[in-house]
């Protein structure tokens, strides 16, 4: 049975007992409202480690004013059942006061990667992500932590902060899990009405089109991005935040598609801000 | 014999062996050029822990442009001998490239405490301190770390960042060690010529005068600070950077001296920037 722990002290006690017995700990940090994407991370952690800890914490620090912190889906009972089905040992579900007690004032940040892609539209977002993940890593002390490729920029930034701050955690990324029609799974898909849900496939279709173009020899980033935008703009009610073709290590825009390249996009549909990406 | 280790991997191996055998690790992070202040920290660590690690790293990140990074005293051979005399197990002396390899871009910062006292005159200084100490704590994984009260603001900030980021380290502060004439020991005292060395006692004399005033019932921060400045200004060639009387937890200026109060000052004499403080 999955045990739910709400205190930092409780997690420390569990982890310390694991480590003393030589067990490895796999960790999946989440904001809850689990979907198959989260479950795929739990399964990989379960396969690779003696103990699996999943955290659920809707982190206020990574939401800007006016973003969806208040309406972000919270469904802890369903999450507990799903974690249990995946053989998760511990669900760490701390309160905001437990993570950010009175007087809290420290943060972790970077200057380069967080200024790019989503970071340009969500000031302070990655600073909030880095801060909470650093805290969680220091509490859970996992051997490895698992993230989804949908949040590729987040993965890259966390890999950087973990390296830079000498955290002894292996940061791993697993493929984006998709609905049958290609939509990347996301807790924020719950914001979509039925018509919007159909429209939302345009992100995946644009990426597919980009991959086809590249496969057929197109190497101009401008042409590929242009075609993607054209395809998305054909769907009424979509607002493209960005379509970018960048080096997959530096996130610097490229003109010519060659070597490790990331195609990433963010599109607003109704109340939802959706992101997706492909490595080509 | 004290062993010198220059790599992060070497320290990790040593510490991991300690922890596996249930030994406690005490840590003294320094910039080298040891004096009795450093040695008092090593002695306390030696008294309290099974293993003692001292780091020497002149951290470029905590020096602003135009500060004394280049001329900061480096005397590693003498330091090794002194650490050896104190029974230090490991001297961790990494290169700049070992601590900040190519691509390094993360930092730890706070908004409140680093803006006060020394922070107002040394932009980025405490950010650099927090970043390197977070790195060192993650590498050394000590049970406790030891700092001197001369750098009281640094201690307060590190206590905050360790709490906020859930680092499992006990941050301890030990009393300032002084020369016979009261001058607080500091590696930067090496910058002082013979005349300046004498003049430098004005910091301690000003603090003593403040303590006497408070002991005799004076509670006006303005009056005490005024008297301290008057006393220092009488010494030719001194430049007061600040004399402040603040709450010793928040570093907020107080008008009335009551409860836990810190009297802190920074004075420039020749090429040296000297600091000192007293808790009253």
Sequence-ordered SSE layout with sheet pairings:
The structure is a homodimer of 280-residue chains.
Chain A: E1 3-5, H1 8-20, E2 25-30, H2 36-48, E3 51-56, H3 76-85, E4 90-92, H4 96-99, E5 106-110, H5 118-121, H6 125-140, E6 144-148, H7 152-164, E7 170-174, H8 194-199, H9 201-215, H10 221-233, E8 238-247, E9 261-269, E10 272-279
Parallel strand pairs in A: 1-4, 2-3, 2-6, 3-4, 6-7
Antiparallel strand pairs in A: 8-9, 9-10
Please identify the top-level CATH class of the largest domain in chain A. Answer: Alpha Beta
Work out the number of β strands of chain A: 10
The overall number of domains of chain A is 2
Strand order of the biggest β-sheet of chain A: 1-4-3-2-6-7
User: What string, H for helix and E for strand, traces the elements of chain A in order?
Assistant: EHEHEHEHEHHEHEHHHEEE
The CATH architecture term of the largest domain in chain A is 3-Layer(aba) Sandwich
The N- to C-terminal Cα distance of chain A equals 41 Å
Give a short summary of the structure.
The first copy, chain A, has 280 residues and is of the alpha/beta class. Chain A contains ten helices and ten strands. Chain A folds into two domains: 172 residues, HUPs (Rossmann fold, 3-Layer(aba) Sandwich); 93 residues, Pantoate-beta-alanine ligase, C-terminal domain (Pantoate--beta-alanine Ligase, Chain: A,domain 2), CATH 3.30.1300.10.
